[in-house]
Design a protein that fits this description.
By secondary structure, the protein is α+β, with helices and mostly antiparallel strands. It contains 5 helices and 11 strands; from the N terminus they run H-H-E-E-E-E-E-E-H-H-E-E-E-E-E-H. The chain has an 11-stranded antiparallel β-sheet with strand order 6-5-4-3-2-1-11-10-9-8-7. Strand 3 and strand 4 form a beta hairpin. The radius of gyration is 18 Å and the shape is globular. The protein starts with a helix and ends in a 22-residue tail after the last helix.
């Protein structure tokens, strides 16, 4: 997985980590957004992710408190897990695991909103578009404007998807399919929000619905 795709997925994890931060803005629109996200979580769903040069389908669980898991449909075997502190990317073909800190970028604004609000760099807006409730989150981080649109069904209040715009020609759309709210006891089993060395060695790191066959690349790019 290239760094652009990693960056987009990091933003997704960061976005949905905001709900469990207790120091968020008192803005009514912000509170409304948090209430709707909390209504939907913890959740399991399938999704379609589209950008200018790629299309992918996958399965995702968001457990809250910075915990999430993404598994893509084959032949994409990339595994992504967030465990509150790290976003873990595992490429089984290359047998390569990458750890990136969760607290960066947009998340910094969400976890420390006062510093960004004082600069008028953090804005939440709410609109109604037909049968959808749309929240727009706009940031101005490091002189770069970024926008996130989150969509909910007006009647059922279920999460429909989101769109991330990082700049000209840098846009990703995620459509949520078949979302199902889970009980907390359902996500406590096993290490669903973890990726252990044992999982790496035995190839047992997948929990999703897909059947897959992974062939390791002998020339995995490791340095001797």
């Amino acid at each position: 997985m290239n760094m652009n795709k990693k960056k987009l997925l990091i933003v997704i994890f960061q976005l949905f980590f905001l709900i469990y931060n207790n120091n968020l803005s008192s803005n009514d629109k912000h509170k409304s957004l948090l209430n709707l996200l909390e209504f939907n979580y913890p959740a399991e769903f399938f999704f379609i992710q589209a950008s200018k040069d790629s299309l992918a389908e996958g399965w995702m669980i968001i457990g809250g408190k910075g915990k999430a898991r993404i598994e893509f449909s084959p032949p994409n075997n990339t595994l992504i897990v967030a465990n509150r502190k790290w976003i873990i990317f595992h490429d089984p073909e290359l047998d390569r695991t990458t750890y990136l800190p969760l607290k960066s970028g947009i998340l910094k604004a969400l976890l420390d909103p006062e510093s960004f609000q004082s600069k008028k760099s953090f804005i939440v807006e709410e609109t109604i578009e037909g049968e959808k409730v749309v929240f727009t989150i706009e940031f101005n981080l490091d002189e770069q404007k970024q926008k996130v649109f989150i969509y909910f069904n007006k009647k059922s209040l279920t999460l429909l998807g989101w769109k991330i715009i990082e700049g000209p020609n840098k846009e990703i759309n995620v459509k949520v399919l078949n979302i199902k709210k889970l009980k907390k006891t359902q996500i406590l089993k096993k290490d669903i929000f973890n990726f252990t060395e044992q999982m790496r060695k035995t190839g047992t790191g997948y929990f999703g619905p897909y059947k897959r066959e992974v062939k390791k690349n002998q020339n995995n790019g490791r340095l001797n």
